[in-house]
Specification:
The protein has about 350 residues and is α+β, with helices and mostly antiparallel strands. The chain folds into 3 domains: about 60 residues; about 150 residues, Immunoglobulin-like (Sandwich), CATH 2.60.40.420; about 45 residues, no CATH class. It contains 9 helices and 12 strands. Helix 2 runs antiparallel to helix 3.
Length: about 350
């Protein structure tokens, strides 16, 4: 007969230590966040789990009960080899799971639309609506290899690996990337949102208490992925103003040349602050045309939407197929924009 070894004192102590370490899970960020959007998402997780436990707990309990009741040594257990059907049992087996699936479906559908990251916030928290005169703080986010660049168009500053926002003010994040697809995630703030090159995604969120919160890349993007983290600061209005002023005082200008150096792959970059940002830089990053002479994607797509090469020739430009070369891209854009200036309000302008 197999003999199990007895656990000695140190082994029991180790087991108790491991068990105690799990106590920290009760304060998991996802279930105890500092932002209202994340709090609503966490509540959905709890609600869905409780609904599923309505099935899971009875199934586990009945499994254990049947194993005990119909064990080999219980000679008093009822034995009915001819039993094959119970209408009551069938109704319970099918009706309860069906009702739970309907409830889960309704909660998921409502929550998915209510917490759509593109949808502007309608509340600060469960007790307060967003005032009609409050404008969201816009933060433009660029995922790089392997760091985060944040533009503040309203304040005219930019930062690397550090972002801040006033407490209880809605935030509108606009996100893109420079190379590989990435994912922006601040567990205390809201769910993760993808950032992709040549595309812009959006995330609406709010932070409800001051503090310093962990932000990360939640999508593997290469060698420096593990160090692609940042700090999110929830600040009072006064502290946020001081934070902005610090960037303007200590930072340097962020122009095209500085950006092209910054975009080169690097790992575990320290926080950087920029006192000013070249006008239109984020739009050039988004449209992948920061380099001199490179045609922007929105210009290229507007040309394609109008017929591509045939449209270019109809405009009298008579350019070769490769209209996106460094040598002639600026000429094409300038010519098309000037010719399209008096276009009708229906609107196929090259800028659209």
């Amino acid at each position: 007969m197999l003999k199990l070894p007895q656990l000695r004192g140190p082994t029991w102590l180790l087991a108790l230590t491991a068990l105690g370490s799990l106590a920290g899970c009760s304060k998991a960020v996802v279930l105890n966040p500092a932002g209202d959007v994340a709090a609503q998402q966490g509540q959905m997780v709890i609600t869905a789990t409780l609904l599923m436990l309505i099935i899971i707990v009875p199934v586990i309990a009945l499994t254990l009960l049947f194993a005990w009741k119909y064990r080999q040594g219980n000679t008093e257990a009822e034995y009915d080899p001819e039993w094959h059907h119970s209408t009551t049992l069938e109704l319970v087996i099918w009706t309860v799971p069906l009702l739970i699936i309907i409830a889960l479906g309704a909660i998921t559908w409502i929550g998915t639309h209510k917490l759509d990251p593109y949808r502007p916030l309608d509340r600060i928290d469960a007790q307060r609506a967003v005032p009609a005169d409050v404008k969201p703080l816009e933060v433009q986010v660029v995922a790089m290899d392997w760091k985060w660049l944040f533009f503040y168009p309203e304040q005219g500053i930019a930062t690397v690996n550090e972002v801040a926002a006033p407490v209880d003010r809605p935030i509108l994040f606009k996100l893109t990337a420079t190379s590989t697809m990435n994912a922006f995630y601040v567990p205390d703030l809201a769910g993760m949102i993808y950032a992709m090159p040549g595309m812009q995604t959006e995330l609406n969120a709010v932070i409800n208490r001051p503090g310093v919160f962990h932000g990360m890349s939640s999508h593997y993007s290469g060698a420096g992925f593990s160090g692609m983290t940042f700090k999110f600061h929830g600040l009072s209005n006064e502290d946020f103003a001081q934070w902005v002023q610090k960037a303007k005082t200590e930072g340097k200008p962020l122009d095209k040349g500085t950006y092209l150096n910054l975009v080169k792959p690097s790992e575990r970059d320290p926080v950087q602050r920029f006192a000013s940002v070249e006008e239109g830089l984020y739009d050039k990053v988004l449209n992948r045309c920061v380099e001199d002479g490179k045609m922007c994607m929105h210009h290229m797509m507007a040309i394609d939407a109008q017929g591509g090469d045939a449209y270019v020739r109809a405009m009298g430009l008579n350019l070769p197929q490769d209209v996106c070369t460094v040598q002639n891209a600026a000429q094409v854009v300038a010519a098309l924009e000037s010719r399209n200036a008096p276009a009708s309000a229906s609107g196929a302008s090259i800028r659209q």
